Amino acid sequence: MKKLLILGAFAILGGVAQAQEGLKLGGHIGAPVGDASRYSPFTFGVDGAYMWNIAKSFDLGIATGYSHFVGKDYEFRGDRYKSDDFGFIPIAVAGKYSFAKAPIFVALDLGYAISVKDGMDGGLYAQPKFGYQKNTMELYVGYQTIGSRRDFDRERIENNFGAINFGINFYIK
């Protein structure tokens, strides 16, 4: 099922890429926070979205991408462990409000993140953003959060994988 959802996400993004209207592609780097900082020192990824202008200064669309968390050594209940790298593919609704007299915006992506690591579930995905935009690109700072469960020594652990990200997206017209 997970592979089918991943394939569907890339098929949607591929179909959107053919249209060229309202498409933006980019990437992000970030610092994990919360539970994610226990397992990862660094995160990076790619972003893609297709936006439609719904009203003056407001865009609505779909977003996807991939966020990769680099693993690290950590301690849990007095024992030392090595975390593997892990990642998520978000499937989200994206909303963006641009301020009329300033080149800044606020945005929110909200949806579900699919885990690409065995033993780790996906979960609710949210990413509020604040940024600066020009005609061909946008820079943003965002807080990405993913609710997830993982199997750990025969027990289920609830985690909130968060990251403060800096990103850049380019508009493709």
Automatic annotation (TrEMBL):
It comes from the Bacteria. Keywords: Signal. This is Outer membrane protein beta-barrel domain-containing protein. The keyword Signal applies. The lineage of its organism: Bacteria, Pseudomonadati, Bacteroidota, Flavobacteriia, Flavobacteriales. Residues 1-19 form the signal peptide.
